[in-house]
Every structure is written in C-alpha cells, then in structure tokens.
Design goal:
The chain is globular and about 50 Å long. It is built from 14 helices and 13 strands. Helices cover 42% and strands 9% of the residues. It is mostly helical. It has a single domain, classed as Glycoside hydrolase 144 (GH144) (Glycosyltransferase), CATH 1.50.10.140.
C-alpha cells in the first residue's frame, strides 16, 4: 500500500501517541507526596490505607502479580532480590487487594484479574506437600532458598496465604460465573495444603519446615506463644488434611505450659511470650494471625485474645513513652516496636531488643486495639516527619531519629498488615470473610475456642 504525506503524518502521530501512552503506563503510579495538614482522621486513614495498598498493586512483582519481599526506592538490592516474592507478603497482599476492591481503589474487573493472576502463579509454583516456600522467584515460581536447608515448604508463611485464600473464597463464592470460578480456585489451593504431613511422622506438634533435600533437618517444631496461632487454627480447620485437637494442646500450648501470669507496665498477660522473661514480643505477634482470625471475643482455655492483643500493644506503647534508654523522638506520638529493617540489618524490635528504631507498621497495624494511640502516630508521622518517612507506597519500613536514619525502603510483610488492619478497624471486612467460613468455624470449635462469630 502506498502512503501519501497525509497518511504518513497520521501514521507517525499515531505511533508517537501510542509510544507516549506506553511510556506513561510504564512510569506507573506516581502519587502527589505533598503533605496536607488539614485532613480529618478518616481522610488521613483512607490516604494511608490507599497509598500502602499500592505496594501490592503498582509495586507488585510484575510477572506473578504477587507481593515482593522488599522494595527499595534507590533500586539497589544487595541480595539481587528485587523480583523475589515473599509467600507471607503475598498472603497479606491478597487480603489487601480484597480491601482495595471493596473500597473502589481499583475496579472489580481489574481486581479479579489480578487475584486470578496471583492464584494461577501460586498454582504453578513449587509446593511441598501443599506448602509454598518462604521465598519464590517471581519470574519462574521456583523456590528461592531462605537458608541453606530452608529450601522447601514453609508452613507458617503458607498459612498466611491460606488465611487470604479463605477470604477470597468467601468474597466471591456467591458471585457471577467468573467470580465463582475464582472462589473455587482459591478453595482448591487452600485445601491442597497437607497440614497433617507437617506433624513429622504423626507427632502432636506442627513443624515449620520440610525440604525434599534435607527432610526435617531444620527441626523447628512450632510452639506458642508467637505469631503462628493461625497455622494451628487452619490445620484444625482443614477439611482435607486436618489434625486432631491434641496437636494444638500438646504442641502449640505445650501441654498447658503456654499459660502463665505476669504484667508489663500494669498490663496483665496469661500467655508465655517465648524467651521474653516476663516481657512481650514484637508487635507483629498481635497482627499476623489476626488479619482474618477476629480476636474480638476470641477465647480459649489459655487466653482472651482481644485483651491479650490490646495489652500487648499498650505495653509497647507505655514502654516507648517511658523510654528507659532515652532514645530521641520516643513518646505518645511516636511509638511502636516490631520486626523490621534496623540500623544494623534487621531486628525483631521489642522492649528487650530496642535499638531506637520505630517501625510504623507496629502502631498502625494495631489500630483496632488502640485507635486513639495509633492515630496519634499516624498524624505525627505524616504531618511532622512527612517525606522523611512517607513515600509512594505509604510509610517507609523503619527509621531512627537517634541515628538520623531514614531509609527509603519497604518490606512486604510490614506493609500488608497496615492495609488489612486499617480495613478491619474501619469495616471488619477481612474478619467477617474469614470467620464466616464453615471449616474455620468447625476448626475453632474443635480446638475449644469461643467467639461471637461461631454459630450456635
């Protein structure tokens, strides 16, 4: 076909326009980071939730659509892990995406497409008796070893995904034909996890790891109390690979040795926080298991879990206000200790391991427990510290005023709980989705839990 000048001009302009659109798309999400100081609490909370959600939307690993282990603004990754997917972060991210769909941050169509993409990736990724590894190569779905012998299934991280799969199933199971297919996909992935295998030969305890190369050499039987309660609840709830109640009571609860009594800053505790010597652990212990598992009114013979989590948060709050080590910036507007980046590497910050590092996810993900105290932190970080700690995917992972240390880095396992717990505080969405699942209700009943969500 012969082109005259007009055709040529039109064709060239079209190419330029298409190229510009492609470049615009490539540049992706670029929010206005101007700090606005006149926002209401609701507006500020929505801004934090929406911007943090983008970690799992715009910032997702592109091939899989799943949650990255980390994102560094400077694009420097010493471990060459920019495309590494974290299984736990992916589970948290799936729940964050559900909240984003429900709030209209993305369209229902785009949201469902992304969920399908991630579930298809999980369906093809390496699994070890149904469990995914701690890290996965995003481009291939192959296991990326977390350690030399940690190159197989990770049942704890897998449980964080299972929690999300149950929520997805509940959200879509009564929808359109396409939505029912998505729900079925989530249900099949969850039911494919062989919790019973991870008893390591039928013991009454669950093991964290198994590797086809190293078998059980990691040798990590999981006992409470820590962040892993959800794993035992799901193991008891599984309709395909369930475990008896004795696995919970003898393994997790250590034949009752999990139960104790102590106080931190006047706040009572009945659970033994492993190795903390009458102290409490990092605040992610009050978050990870409770993104779907609603602690409100949740009780068993060992604890009242709502009271426990509220007191855990208040103990960390009061410790930071007291500030016994005299770190710069600590106070009622600036508190929160949990596992995160630290001035020297990575640390599970808590009162016994305090290096002057504040992790925003600690107070923000605790907002259902301490709404007033958490809002003070959100407003202080946003209005007063501003872009020192605030970026395109919400608040950066951690900072230290003492060391004048403000890294522009994110960790997926810290971003996810902020989105989900803000949503649970605002609407209870993920709690409702998870707690209404019949298998979960049967599992909780089997283990002797009480909850307002359990059908009589």
């Amino acid at each position: 076909m012969k082109l005259n000048f007009q055709h040529f001009l039109f064709f060239s302009l079209t190419l330029i326009t298409l190229s510009a659109c492609a470049q615009g798309k490539k540049s992706g999400y670029n929010p206005d980071l101007t700090i606005r100081k006149n926002l209401t609490d609701e507006q500020l909370l929505d801004l934090v939730q929406k911007q943090t959600f983008q970690y799992f939307w715009d910032g997702a690993e592109p091939t899989s659509g799943a949650g990255r282990e980390r994102y560094h603004v400077d694009n420097i990754y010493p471990e060459n892990d920019k495309s590494t997917v974290a299984t736990g972060a992916t589970g948290f991210g799936l729940m964050a995406i559900l909240s984003g769909i429900d709030r209209g941050y993305v369209t229902k169509k785009d949201g469902a497409e992304r969920l399908n993409k991630i579930l298809d990736f999980l369906g093809k990724a390496d699994r070890f008796h149904g469990a995914w590894s701690h890290w996965i190569y995003g481009e291939t779905g192959k296991v990326r070893p977390f350690g030399r012998k940690d190159n197989g299934g990770d049942l704890v991280e897998t449980s964080f995904v299972a929690q999300a799969l149950i929520c997805i199933n509940t959200y879509y199971k009564n929808g359109t034909t396409a939505e029912k297919a998505l729900a079925k996909k989530a249900d099949e992935l969850w039911k494919g996890i062989d919790f019973n295998w991870y008893r390591n030969g039928g013991q009454n305890v669950l093991y964290w790891h198994w590797s086809p190369e190293y078998q059980w050499e990691m040798n990590f039987p999981v006992k409470g109390y820590n962040e892993c309660l959800i794993m035992y609840v799901l193991a008891a709830s599984s309709p395909t690979h369930t475990v008896p109640a004795e696995v919970y009571h003898q393994g997790w609860a250590r034949n009752g040795e999990i139960k104790t009594n102590f106080e931190v800053y006047g706040h009572p505790f009945t659970l033994d926080y492993q190795g903390q010597k009458n102290s409490v652990g990092p605040l992610f212990w009050a978050h990870y298991s409770y993104l779907g598992l609603n602690p409100k009114g949740l009780k068993d013979r060992y604890a009242n879990y709502w009271e426990n989590n509220v007191n855990h948060t208040l103990a960390i709050h009061d410790y930071c206000v007291a500030n016994p080590k005299g770190f710069k910036g600590y106070g009622v507007n600036n508190w929160g200790l949990t596992a995160s980046y630290s001035v020297k590497g990575y640390a599970a910050h808590n009162p016994q391991e305090d290096f002057g590092v504040i992790s925003p996810t600690a107070a923000i993900s605790s907002i259902p427990y301490t709404p007033k105290e958490s809002m003070k932190v959100i407003r202080h970080l946003y209005e007063n510290l501003g872009t020192k700690v605030w970026g395109k995917y919400g608040f950066y992972d951690a900072f230290s005023e003492t060391d004048n240390w403000y890294p522009q880095k994110y960790l997926g396992i810290d971003q996810g709980p902020m989105v989900v717990m803000i949503e649970n505080y605002r609407s209870g969405l993920l709690w409702k989705l998870f707690m209404s699942n019949e298998d979960v209700q049967k599992g909780l009943t089997k283990l002797g839990f009480e909850s307002p969500a359990l059908k009589k």
